[in-house]
Amino acid sequence: MRRFSLPVPLTLQTRLGRRIALLFVVSALVPVAVMGVQGYAQVTGWLKNESQTRLELAAKSVGMGIVAQLGNAHDILGALPPAGGANGAPANGLELARAHEAFASLAVVGPAGRRVLWGTAPDTTLSADAALRVAGGAAVLQIGRSGRPWMVVPAARGAELWGALDTTYLFNGARVRAAIDTSDVTLCIRAVGTTARLPCSAGRISGDDPIGSWDVFLKYDFGAQPWRVTLSQPLASVLAPVHDFQRTFGLSIITVVALVVLLTSVQVRRSLKPLAEFQRGMTRVAQRDFSSSVSVSSGDEFEDLAQTFNRMSGEIDQQFRAITAGSAIDQTALASRRGEDVAATAATRLQAALQCPRVNVYVAGDRPTAAWRCISGINGLARAAGEVWPPAADLERLLARPGMWLRQEGPWLPWLQVGPAGPPPDAVLTLVSHGELLGLVALFTDGPPSEEQGRVARQLSGQVSVGLSNSRLISRLNGLSYGALAALARTVDANSHWTAGHSERVTALSMRMARRLRLPETELDTLHRGGLLHDIGKIGVPATILDFAGPLDDEGMKVIRSHPELGAKILAPIAAFRDAVPIVLYHHERVDGAGYPEHLKGGDIPFLPRLLAVADVYDALVSDRPYRPGWSTTLAIDTIRGLAGAHFDPAMVDAFLGVMAVEGDGARFAIDPLAYAESGS
User: What SS3 class is residue 544?
Assistant: First the structure.
């Protein structure tokens, strides 16, 4: 027959292990036992006090409810007809229904005798003081011989109206008002000075049971002695949670012993903890998390190995951050033509890669005297910090010695300070490409940058220089493109001196509206190109029609209305202007469908043509034409406001009105930043 035995934990297999286990058990059990006894005494006292307070509050709640019901009963009794109908006038149905609910008996007592309306006759009489009170018009509450409370009010012709209060009505919801959830709470209401129990639950009250009471004072309203509301609860019920704890205390002791044995086993195996920590560290490295370190404080070779591992992980993390930052800078330089976008990416990525409090990137202007824009990277976020105007002498000094300038190596440049005064940068790196100073990188590293920080900063600064150089080249090429477009627009407008500058003014106003609507840069670029070329189809319209000083005949209108389709055909073969074709084709459509050439309605008209249409009509209204002088700005604005929803998209009209409210008619002549290179700025 095979014998089975339970495995013995490693902790109990040696005398030292057993000794440690016994020490742990004793050290754990003694405090638990002491705290258990003290806790039992404290919890018992607290439960008693809490029950006493709760019962007193509940008794007060019941008493306040009784006062309210007595007041309601008094109102019901007083609302009955004089003398309860003794004069032959019956009460109405609603009054009788309420009276039947509140009073078990109702009778009229007067000089002529008693008359019972329902129930039983009063089994008590009024004292002299009570009779005087009723005669004075007040109500009296009196306990009958049977213990039933009677309410007496004056009636007509010296009579008294007696109502025996229905106890169900009077004490209705007493337990609910007291918020007593347990069924073992005893409720008893007594009239002080009598032995009558109005309602009293069956139950025996022990001297140790918590009791709460409250007196309902009735002297002022009803000339009666107080009613005492008493609530009690058996002590055993109050201490039931403690009794439950007693039953589970033994199980808790067993649990504590088992826990102590387990902790002892863990202590024996603590040498395995460093290996588990190394395993978790390698897993994090495999998941590209190089920032978390391995924490081992065993005081032996494991701790030395952990320090080496953390140092290696930190170097890998630095390299990974540098590679990620460089990739992000390159992608931004390829995707955006704005130097500020490259600077914003560089500021945040450099700050993260170098793990320093702040990095400022300064972008040089296109002209030597232009302001430099500062982008600050803090906590992974980029923000525009303002503009600075560097002196020419400082720029020559920086260009003469490109590279990194430490604070202690060179003079402090006060113009690098942007915003509130603060400490100067700890290092400055020049951004130079093809002999041109494109900007600076200022590092705030709370002290001289480390050798590794300097190496990473120089590496990434080179990529920032390339990105800024590319963005500047693209901007200049775009400037040439916009300049060509502007020249073409002026050529089209020159077909008639009445429309000279029209395309540029419409474009300027449209761009102000678009920026108010926060359109993305791609949409702004399309709008700018389409605005300059929106009337290119007028190349095919004879000057005699454009300059005609009166209403055009049907043939003339047909020619002038052909210019959107002709313009679209001119631009269609040019891939660079394909996105602008809808602006050229649909800028004369109306949201009510009365426009041309395709009579589109509402949302069927593309977004940008709906926007440009408002600016186009406004410039035409305020400009002189051969057939009429230009309108006033106010009249033109009111006209466009009135055409919202019919001719124009209401949202575009709102944007137009917002621009005009801020900038006025000058918005037609504003130079948009998108075309800054056109003017050579």
Answer: helix
**Which of 591, 599, 602 lies closest to 646, judged by CA?**
591
For residue 165, is it within any domain? Answer: yes
High-pLDDT (> 90) share of the chain, %: 16
Structure token digits, residue 457: 């900063």
Looking at the DSSP bridge assignments, the partners of residue 360 are 376, 442
pLDDT in tens, 212-248: 888 989 888 888 889 888 888 888 777 777 776 666 7
**451 and 586 share one domain:** no
How far is residue 666 from each of residues 161, 486, 531, measured CA to CA in Å? 90, 19, 17
In this structure, is residue 482 part of a structural domain?
A: no
User: For 99-118, what is each residue's pLDDT tens digit?
Assistant: 888 898 999 988 888 888 89
DSSP, residue by residue, 583-647? HHHHTT--TBS--SSS--BGGGS-HHHHHHHHHHHHHHHHS-BTTBPPPPHHHHHHHHHHTBTTT
Does some domain include residue 33? yes
At 32-45, the pLDDT tens digits run 777 777 777 787 88
Are 309 and 242 contained in the same domain?
Answer: no
User: What is the full DSSP assignment across 225-258?
Assistant: PPEEEEEE--HHHHTHHHHHHHHHHHHHHHHHHH
Instruction: Determine the structural domain holding residue 421 and report its residue range.
Output: 336-474
How many domains are contained in the chain?
Answer: 4
